[in-house]
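Q: Structure tokens for this one, please.
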Amino acid sequence: MEAYQAELDSLVSSAASPGNEITVLRLQTALVEGKGFASAQAIEVPTLLRSLARAVREGYDAIAIGNGFDPGLWEARELFDLPVLGLFETLAFYGLRAAWRLGVLCSGNSGITRVEELAARYGINSRMARPLAVGIPVPKVVAAFSDRASAEAVLDGTNEALMELKRRGAEAVVVASGALGVFLDVHKSRLPLDLPVLPSVQILVRELECAAGLAKMGVPYVSRTGRFAKPPSAVEEMLSP
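A: Here is the predicted structure, written as tokens:
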């Protein structure tokens, strides 16, 4: 885990614009096993929302949730008066600016239907090839940062999946996994050149900076009419320390 976190911190630092500070906040107790299952993430969402509430109190200008399945994203938009970005949502809409038909790569097989659910939620099904998984769960992807054999297995599975996504018509690929996205950026020289795999961390960092900058200019970052209407204060008070 330490090797993965070190690579993530390095990518975030190098992606940030001069003068901007991007802080990587980690849950004190984060699930690694079962990461692709909705039930596992539902158990983790209250802890995530409390962590976000703490970040809001500490004065951050914008927040991104760095999980490939965007847990708690819409709930956070309801609750907090600052821009809140999700990893998959941000990458997918960036990808749809770069390509007409988008491919999505997950780590474990359980992620495929999760991505399909997100695509339906965001209304982008018609421009996506069916998602594919590398077939390696998140704990083994994390291990690949420090274990050569694991790294080769991840790269082999990734390149096979990328070939299939290209056959399905994908013109660019986003990665619906924080750990896998970082790993593939570190090993981008081992990926095919004819199908772009968009860099997760760099896109998320720069979109986060943009969201914060637009909010400071007075550009609305969320509509309080309809789906993201502000809940009663008693709801937010439940997140207090």
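A few notes: The chain has a mean pLDDT of 94. Residues 148 and 154 are 10 Å apart (CA to CA).
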